[in-house]
Amino acid sequence: MLDGAQHDEELPSDEGEGDDVNPLSDDSSEEAATDEEEAQNVRKDFIVDDDNEEDDDSDAEEERHKNRRKRRRRRAFLLSQDDDLDLVAENTGRKVSSRPELSRLRRGRASPTGERAMTAADLSDDDDDIPDIHDIFEDVQRQKATRDAFEDYDMDGDQDDMDNFIDDEEDEVGADGMGEEERAERRAEKKRSEAQRKKAMGSHVQMTGFEPGVFDEIYEVFGQGDDYDWALDEEDMSDSEQPKDMKWQDVFEPSEIAARYLTADDDVIRATDVPERMQLNTSSLSPHATLGPSLLNTPFPESEINNAAEWVATRLPSRIRDQYFVPGGMHNDLLHEMIIAVTKVIKYILVDFLEVPYIWAHRRDHFSHFVPGKPRVTMLERDDLWRVNQLAGRFRALWQRRIVLDETWQRMGTTDDYYENTLRPGAHLNSVEGVSDTLEWLSMKHKKPYQDAIDFASQDAETGDANAGRQKKPSRITQYDLAKSSVVSRLASSFGLEPSDVVRNVVSDRKQFFTEDQQTTPLIFAEAFVSGESGGGGPATPEDALQSARMILATELGKDPLLRQVTRDRFKSGAVVSVKPTEKGVNKIDDQHPYAPFKYLLNKPVSKFASDTQWLHILAAEADHLVTVEITLSQRDETAFRDSLFRAISSDGFSDAAIAWNHQRGQIIEEAIEKHLYAMGVKHVREWLKDEVEELLGNRCAMELEARIDVAPYRPRDFEKGEIPAVLALSWGKGDPQKDAIFAVFMDEAGHVREQIKFDNLIDPDARKDFQDFVKKRKPDVVAVGGFSILSVRLFDRVKEVVGHESELAAALGDGEEGSVVPAPSHDDGKDKPPPVIWVPDAVARVFQHSRRGAEEFNFIPVIGRYCVGLARYVQSPLSEYVAMGADINAISFNEDQQLLPNDKLLSFLERALINIVNDVGLDINRAVMDPYYRYALPFIAGLGPRKAQAMVKRIGQLGTVMIREEFITKEILTAQVFINAVGFLKTSQDEYDDGDSRGKKSSASRLDPLDATRIHPEDYDLARKMASGALELDEEDFVNQHPSLPVMTLQSDENSQAKLDALNLDEFAQNLLETNDERKRHTLDVIHDELLNPFGELRPEFPTMTDWEILTMLTGETKRTLAAGRILTVTVSRIKNDGVDVRYDNGIEGSIARDRLSASHADPGKVVKLRQSIQAVIESVKVQPGPRVSSVLIALPDAIELAETNRQKKFDEHYNSEAARQAQELQERRQRSEANRTRRVIKHPSFKNFNSREAENWLAPLQHGDALIRPSSKGPEHLAVTWKVADGVFQHIDVVESGMETAFSAGPQYTIDGRYTYSDLDDLLVNHVKAMSRKVDDLMASEKYKGGTPQELTNWLTNFVKMNPNRSSYAFGLNRQKPGYFNLSFLANIDSPVQTWQVKVTPTAYRLGEVEVGSVADLCDAFKRK
Fold first, then answer.
1. Which of 222, 763, 1067, 1273 is deepest in the core (most CB within 10 A)?
2. Which helix (H) or strand (E) segment is 289 a member of?
3. Based on C-alpha coordinates, what's the Rg of the chain?
4. d(Cα 200, Cα 180) in Å, to the nearest integer?
5. Quick one: which of 316, 481, 282 has its CA closest to 392?
6. Helix %, strand %, coil % for the chain, to 5?
7. What is the reported pLDDT for 1304?
8. 3-state class of 1033 per DSSP?
9. Which of 660, 483, 640 is nearest to 554 (CA)?
10. Which residues in 904-1050 belong to E strands, given as ranges?
């Protein structure tokens, strides 16, 4: 027996000599090498050592390495013993030869069981010993026997002589002080662990090729087999470095996690029993949709419903206000019913969490006026419900802010009569701005109590302990605070009237409070408040004292919530807008520019912007730095406003003192207006007008989308409404015969692509015959055609001819082009009629062909084939194609101005249209689970969303088919509130989509209900059963102990069901329900009537046929506006004839120019133009005939072109300032003449270029960052300009002042930049200024804190980082492309804070952050952290 203690000291040699398995060792009986060199040799041959061990003065590290070396020597010795190999041969009866060269053990992570599988190669290199394939895959009995042998093996037993051949060194550790019981317990524990390990190893025995008994003996000799596990572990991995359990947050990027809806917020949304869209702060289509405030934690009280209804009713569309709220309106007699209807709808939304589709479908009776015998009046249309839904959400946010205001006031624990009696009940609190103003007013008037209350609330929110210690945050001391705490505050109180009283005078528009004058003039009176010396802590002069006092009063007036609300109202009603171009805009906005109509705008009332999108264009032009926008009050409104304020504060005295005091008061009013009120009014009216116009534009986009998707699938002849056709879709691409083939895709009625085929043309007889055979084989119900050019019209006609329709193309050409081809098939007696050939709108198909979804779904089809797939799918269901687009839907054009809408807002409006139509149509839930394409519509069902739909599909996939609606609740597929919203729009059709899973179906089959396959909501099932019973003239007693819906089944199987239902008097039925049960159900009865006859019937209008102009626009992009008479175009001469020339537009449209319209002299056309020459011409007339075929007549006479140039000027706004435009034009012309006459400077320097700014940027664009040039300056001969490239697309223009010039053509000896940096020559300037700044820019861009991209991308990065690390803040640098030479320093304190951005200026010597200058990026980061 070998003692473990001897392993490090003495190596036994009494076993005899074996084969040399270690070429570095001459004798296995030698003492183990203890020097470092020998240890390294051992490691070299037995260990693949990837670690480069470093000496580092650490005692712990040295000790760790020392222990590791001991273990290596000990284990290397065991492995190198030839005697061990002899034992193997002796015990197994097999000769195991040593390898000629020892292979290295490869390090790797241990398996979960801590074992390494043994293979035959570990024991033998003899090919004869390699097991046969039949030996490797032993039967189950042999493997089981091997496992049993291991399980029966007793390590502590004395049965085998080999038990104690090698003692486990761990047995010797601490064995001296261990009793027999402790030894037994320890061995028993080891026995259990060994048994588990051996059991796990049993599954690997079969792979070794050895008999089970042989492997037992090997195990008995060599022990556990884990002696070399150390070689499989990371050598330098300490316990603290062991890998922790990986989570998917550690693997995926935050953006990927969010895209898969795997964030913590997504889990909250799925689990909360509130419709998903109500929990989000924006559209569920938006990639930036995030979780909003919890609706369950702060439930909306029913006591606030009436207040909400009053607030919402005044903000409904003008149509409703004119009809119901204006005396004499069409429905003014229903005003009370309208208020009740709005109240109920708000309760449904805010309290009951019901979405608009549910309210519109199942609660319409509550906002419809019904009187038997009279037409019903629907007081709120579906668009109005969406508006109410939006306003209700805003009121909820307002209500929550009011709660914050009240809680803050309560925490402050102070008193204020003005707040309690005037501000708190004021109407200004009906707006978010009013509440914010009130909080700001409290922070100003009662600063310390307010700050304490805020700190208290913050600490309470963080810890939940109101009594926990609080750390007060530092507050900023303003000039107002300083003055208010000084003696000047007493002077301010002596102006005769408190600011609050002035405001009450303004609001009431009469003098409630009167001003008292002092007996002395203001200057004399103020002397008592002068400190007498400058810097003594008080005002030094009476003028200073009065100025500080006026500042106090002006600030309190400017911050008063009531006065700010008066100002906002005044601006909304009386503000006017003026627009002027910037220097850049003067040159860029010409008469044909989209911004030309408002280039010079003067005093246009804001009320006139509400009917179009001009205001959004103005804001876009301002963002592009092309115009400046000025908003002021009209002269009349401004005069009236100032007069009302002055009357409210002034006294009626006529003495010199009274006049002087009134003058001071007038200055207070001016200061309050200029410093506080007007800026706030301008900001408010800009945002208010922007919201109003965006609402207008968003509604237009939603209406256009709704019109496109609110159509049924295409219905060929003899098809039932709603039945899906099989489609053959074709396209010729751009129609180039040399490049483009004709591609066709056949899609069956189930939406599956069954075949794709390509044809070179449809002119050759063989190709036409192949196409006819393909059509005959597949028998499509309709043939859809699309394309990218006007040449697709020829494809359309040839397809019609080949499938058997009359050839419009041949009739139009009349030249026998098709005369020699295979004739079209004949159709006798109308049998086997040819399928219709139609044009299909391709807006969605164009996006789909290049989309990621298209590539993933049809990667085996080329791009043009995916375009055809999109066409076919559109024919089968326009709605499905649009809902499948997801967020890409904003790539479709619904309005020419939709790019002016923010993306999230546009998606919100488009989502609304999708929700409307998806819920109108309904959805088969079992088909949605099984069909991924059909499933795209599921998130738009009421109550659902992408996250809840995802969870719903997963749950149904686990349970099997849903057979009855009741299972949505009993099987926990939907929560209660979501169920109420969604169930009426979900159809259960268990017969068609049986997946073969019988789980629970037998119990559900007995409860099948035909009403589950209708749009009728379960809450109205009893009503439907009563109606069916009434139609059958049966009583409830006739169905005792029967299925409750047996009357429905009986009625639906009745051939006269419609006649029987039509015989019911639904008006009388509805009136009876109202009188007996107080249930309004007239509209619901109509729905039940229709659904009993045609469950989930198709309600949408027929698939529309495209007009000729629509086809022309799809193929060419031209519209009636772009092809209007008088339009100037550039055309190419395609044919020259004696009577004129034929021309072709860029988009392929053809036209003609008569000889007398080509030249005034009627010259030979061949002498006037050449073939393929581009010329300008004016459209004289355009005719679009069926096909479509376009014939256009043009004129190319110079006089006609000049006249068209004059007439094509855009129509200017009625408030266009023509005089300002004329003056600007004259100034521009004078500048151009001056520029032409001015001698341009020439400087002898290699970097000098005679460029303007744009030419300089174009010249530098392909060069390296930091390259620069010198050029003349437009500021005069004493200036130069240096332009250098900061980054791609970013150039800085530096103004250089030149002094000491000797002549007009030589550089002076001194150059100054910013009045701060002076250089002796231009080389000095380029090296020490431009290059120095370039190095600073490069250093900052090389920092790990620099993030490229747009400001929005920088914001998204910060937001994602803080979301993933909620306990950390983050900051990063980004390039400021609007101000070259500056960087943006953006930071996010926490997830609830907004992203803030500071600017960092780069100078030749430092980075400037505010007033701080630092020399390096590290110092800049430190300066930011300190700041």
1. 1273
2. none
3. 43
4. 30
5. 316
6. 50, 10, 40
7. 47
8. coil
9. 483
10. 923-924, 986-987
* Residue entry with tokens 């409703």: 320
**CA–CA gap between residue 1023 and residue 482 (Å, rounded):** 73
For the sheet containing 837-839, what is the strand order? 753-759, 742-747, 727-731, 782-786, 837-839
Question: Which residues are 1195's β-sheet partners?
Answer: 1178
Tokens of 845: 């198909």
Please give the residue that has the higher pLDDT: either 478 or 102.
478
The helix (run of H) or strand (run of E) holding residue 59 is helix 59-79
**pLDDT tens-digit map of 1115-1152:** 999 999 889 888 888 999 999 998 899 999 988 899 99
Angle, helices 36-46 vs 59-79, to 10°: value is 60
Torsion over CA of 436, 438, 443 and 445, rounded to 10 degrees? Answer: 160
Are 380 and 317 in contact by the 8 Å Cβ rule? The answer is: no
Overall residue count recorded for the chain in this entry: 1427
**C-alpha to C-alpha distance for 283 and 277, rounded to whole angstroms:** 7
Q: Which two tokens stand for residue 467?
A: 């009594």
Q: Is the peptide bond before 1394 cis (omega within 30 degrees of 0)?
A: no
Angle at 215 between CA 214 and CA 217, to 5 degrees: 65
Q: Tens digit of pLDDT for each residue in 504-546? A: 999 988 888 898 888 899 999 989 888 765 445 678 899 999 9
Give backbone dihedrals phi and psi of 813, rounded to 5 degrees, phi first.
Answer: -75, -45
Give, in order, the Cα–Cα distances in Å from 189 to each of 154, 184, 192, 194, 196.
Answer: 12, 9, 5, 9, 11
- Exposure string (b/e) for 1062-1095, b if CB count within 10 Å is 16 or more? eeeebbebbeebbeeeeebbbbbbebbbbbbeeb
Q: Residue 1094 and residue 339: Cα distance in Å, rounded?
A: 35
Going from the C-alpha of 689 to that of each of 282, 436, 636, 682, the distances in angstroms are 20, 20, 21, 11
Alpha-carbon distance of 1065 to 376, in angstroms, equals: 16
Q: Is 804 left (phi over 0), alpha (psi -120 to 50) or beta?
A: left
Kindly report the CA angle at 855 between 853 and 856, in degrees rounded to 5?
65
pLDDT band at 167 (very low <50, low <70, confident <90, very high): very low
Which of 520, 519, 516, 525 shows the shortest CA–CA distance to 546?
525
As given in the structure block, the two tokens for residue 139 are: 């039967």
Q: For the chain, give me the number of helices (H) and strands (E)?
A: 60, 27
Q: Which residues contact 1077 (CB under 8 A, 6 or more apart)?
A: none
- Dump pLDDT digits (tens) for 1302-1312: 544 444 568 88
d(CA 984, CA 1015): 5
Instruction: Determine how β-strand 377-378 pairs with β-strand 368-369.
Output: antiparallel
Q: Where on the phi/psi map is residue 1308: left (φ > 0), alpha (ψ -120 to 50), or beta?
A: beta
* Pairing outcome for strands 1279-1287 and 727-731: unpaired
What are the residues whose beta carbons fall under 8 Å from the beta carbon of 534, sequence distance 6 or more?
540
Residue with the two structure tokens 């706030």: 680
N- to C-terminal Cα separation, the chain:
73
The angle subtended at Cα 357 by Cα 353 and Cα 363, nearest 5°, is: 75
pLDDT value, residue 428: 84
Distance CA(573)–CA(558), nearest Å, equals 20
What SS3 class is residue 744?
strand
Lowest mean pLDDT among 136-140, 295-299, 318-322, 952-956: 136-140
Q: What is the pLDDT of residues 423-470, one digit of tens each?
A: 988 888 899 999 999 999 999 999 899 888 888 877 655 555 444 444
Q: Record the tokens describing residue 597, joined without a space.
A: 């109509």
**Which sign, positive or negative, has the C-alpha torsion 841, 843, 844, 850?**
positive
